Amino acid sequence: MTERAAEAGGRPATVPDELGAEDRRFLLQVAREALRAHLAGRVYRPPEGGPGVRALRGAFVSLHRREDDDLRGCVGLMRSDEPLVETVARMAVAAASHDGRFSPVAPEELPGLVIQVSALGPVHPVRPEQVEVGRHGLVVACGGRRGVLLPQVPVEHGWDRETFLDRTCGKAGLPAGAWRRPDATLHVFTAEVFGEEGKGSEG
């Protein structure tokens, strides 16, 4: 996963009640239409949608290959000053074109890609012992580096809390155990994670 920005400036993110099934379907459709337009060289402006998808909140979009579930791109914003629907559309395009771990997605790949959206809750500081595997996504910052892992990742891999902390350090290019350093900061967040059939989860 690539964290495009920890803060987007402007107003703080606001988080509504849990997204309904219709909101989730709508956001997945927006993400796919944004990808389709991008790969065709067209400008896409997502529809406004209902109140739930207009809230200001961060989001990550992950792309996986349907045939083997391998990650093909994952980009997101921890916070956003745009409505969630617009953030999802932008992050879908960014996941296909600006995840430095991968080459840009080609148009012929789109039918074989599965989209997953993680709509984020507020970010707040915690102590290491307060990190809850299966509930929290994690941000570790230390020495000018920052790593982020979404809450579904440790569950998928069966990690305990300490392994989760260590692996998030690794995501930042830090050694395992760097979260114990006095200059390290830990933040957690929750996420509503949903995707198209056949999705993977690692970002």
Description:
The strands form two sheets. Strands 1-3-2-4-9 form a five-stranded mixed β-sheet. It is α+β, with helices and mostly antiparallel strands and 203 residues long. The protein has five helices and nine strands. The radius of gyration is 16 Å and the shape is globular. The chain folds into two domains: 2-121, Hypothetical protein ph0010, domain 1 (Glycoprotein, Type 4 Pilin, 2-Layer Sandwich), CATH 3.30.700.20; 124-189, 2-Layer Sandwich (Dna Ligase, domain 1), CATH 3.30.1490. Helices cover 27% and strands 24% of the residues.
List keywords for this structure.
203 residues, alpha+beta, Glycoprotein, Type 4 Pilin, Dna Ligase, domain 1, 2 domains, five-stranded mixed sheet, four-stranded antiparallel sheet, globular, disordered N terminus
